[in-house]
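On clarity, I found the account of how folds are encoded harder to follow than it need be. Since the whole study asks how a given chain folds, the encoding of that fold should be made plain. For illustration, here is how one protein appears when written out as sequence plus structure tokens:
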Amino acid sequence: MKVTLLTVGKTEDNYLKEGIEKYLKRLKHYVKVEVVELPELKNTKALSEDQQKSKEAELILKKVTVTDFLVLLDEKGLELTSPQFAAYLDKKALGSVQHVVFVIGGPYGFDDEVYRRANDKLSLSRMTFSHQMVRLFFVEQLYRAYTIIKGEPYHHQ
């Protein structure tokens, strides 16, 4: 199985980039992972929130194929514990899902068109985090999930 993290905009802060790279390097031992950063929209002051979401939707949906399993990281999504997330990923792999694409949207969330295409929605927390920080939190949880699947001692209960 391949995992892609699709983000709107680039990671800006070096400490976040370093953390993300740390976990991506570790993940190479478990799964093929790719991070795809879509360009941030320019001149957004003239656009409404809905217009921005619509333009971001075009960029997101261009990167997703018909066979991809699309998971939105969304505040309204299902909340899982780390072991539950590991089981979720394991079930996808055992169910012959070839490619899971996790998406972190822009500042206003997702357009309805993206919600319609999505196969699932997951929430990392009831709290609100910056989109920049969510990237690091997500790759750490992805790494944690694969260590749980492999029975390795990274996760403690």
